[in-house]
Amino acid sequence: TVAVVLFTRDLRLRDNPALRAALASADAVVPLFVRDDAIAATGYAVPNRQAFLADCLTDLDRQLRERGGRLVVRSGDVVEQVCSVLHETGATDVHMAADVSAYAQAREDRLRRALAAGRRRLHVHDRSVTVVAPGDITPAGKDHMAVFTPYFRRWATAPPREVLAAPRRVHVPAGVRSEPVPSREDVRGAAPGVGRGGESAGRARLAAWTRSGLDAYAERHDDLAADATSRLSAHLHFGTLSPVELVARARRRGGLGAEAFVRQLAWRDFHHQVLAARPAASRADYRPRGDRWRTEEQAGEEIEAWQQGRTGYPVVDAAMRQLLHEGWMHNRGRLLAASFLTKTCYVDWRVGARHFLSLLVDGDVANNQLNWQWTAGTGTDTRPNRVLNPLAQAARYDPDGAYVRRWVPELEGIAGRAVHAPWKLHGTGRAAPGYPAPVVGLADGLTRFRRARGG
Ligand code: FAD
């Protein structure tokens, strides 16, 4: 018998429930990845993620070959490609990981219908993309949890599933047609600082992080210059690392750092379960607040300055330039940059979310859209009208200004915290030529936002 494993956001051999189930149920397995036309058509397949994805596929193929198999790559409509592989191999069963976006849910429905019509079976495995399955933790009579803290309380006590070892051998039937596995060199236009993708690179990063970062995570994760977070987000997005395994390892390690890290992984699950129940929240306000956001016409200059890292607020600009250069941004940077756009400039969160998704290697429908909604106050934040002041944020999370000097070279000559308000240096001979004046006044922004929200 032959089974197909359709890899999606679970591009790993270790702790992969779909792969494990396929291997346990059939003599031969087709490890299939489809370069899906529908995803390309949405504009989601941007160079930074494509570069990382190519690494993931190259590494998956290499690891499969070490075990006697190989990766089969096809392009086109995912349902047509799966059906064509079933037809060519006589396979009867398809295994894949459960996922949450509107697109992923529609893909699953289409596959299920197409397979049922040919008397074949689709097996969808949860607790692969997330630690706890969406819908497993719900208040009575509801389909998801809308507040993080009570969600986390229950999430933290959910019985863990066993972490699965990688298979030793993978037997792939002969003669299955495959396109060449994409390689990173084929991708044009990725940012210079995009990290290496693939399970092997993910495991190396995980080992280094567990050795040298995890224990201090609780104290240091908000320090912008320390760069003391795991940087595992893209590996989690593409599933080159399993979130179930990460939680198990952190719990084994124990301590305050590990606890704080596990809590962040619970945030990831939290947003996934919101999106699974409310797929429209990727576009529409989860909790509408009657906003009449300034349009791209009204706020064009501010939006452009924000995207380019030239708002005149150094900490915002540093964060935005880190994104341009690395396709990644520190979480504290994401929070203050998103608050600046939505609350100080009063621009629609969708404008910011789109820009982030065009660059973030970890760009993720659940985490990105729902964190943007959280920051804009249209999501699950229980204090939706809080506004992060970039100067106060800078003083607290980049007290010495090192993060700003790293990313904003025009300001590298200004020592200490004075770097956060270069406009105060005019006339002192220390001003930074070429660095813009603030594009909007903080007090004006605050007044506009309070009026808009009726505060
Ligand atoms: P760590 O601090 O090491 O955290 C470990 C893991 O926990 C992360 O890799 C991530 O998977 C998860 N995590 C941490 N914080 C959050 C959070 N607030 N929400 C959900 N999961 C979290 N994360 C993405 O993975 N993709 C996105 O597209 C994304 N967009 C964001 C947009 C905005 C406006 C904001 C405020 C946050 C966004 N985040 C997103 C969440 C968070 O900023 C990143 O996950 C984190 O910065 C990634 O770096 P890290 O792996 O070093 O995180």
Describe what you observe in this structure.
It is a single chain. With 455 residues, the chain is α/β, with parallel strands linked by helices. The chain has 3 domains: 2-126, Rossmann fold (3-Layer(aba) Sandwich), CATH 3.40.50; 130-159 and 200-277, Serine Threonine Protein Phosphatase 5, Tetratricopeptide repeat (Alpha Horseshoe); 300-452, DNA Cyclobutane Dipyrimidine Photolyase, subunit A, domain 3 (Orthogonal Bundle), CATH 1.10.579.10. The protein has helices spanning 17-25, 37-41, 47-66, 78-89, 102-117, 148-155, 199-212, 217-220, 233-238, 243-253, 256-277, 300-308, 314-326, 331-344, 349-359, 365-376, 390-397, 402-407, 442-452; strands spanning 2-7, 28-36, 72-76, 93-97, 121-125. The chain has a 5-stranded parallel sheet, sandwiched between helices. Helix 11 crosses helix 16 (365-376) and helix 15 packs antiparallel against helix 16 (365-376). 46% of the residues are buried. Flavin-adenine dinucleotide is lined by residues 221, 229-233, 236-237, 264-265, 267-268, 271, 331, 334-335, 338, 356, 360, 362-364, 367-368, 371-372, 375. This is Deoxyribodipyrimidine photo-lyase. Keywords: Chromophore, FAD, Flavoprotein. It holds the Pfam family FAD_binding_7.
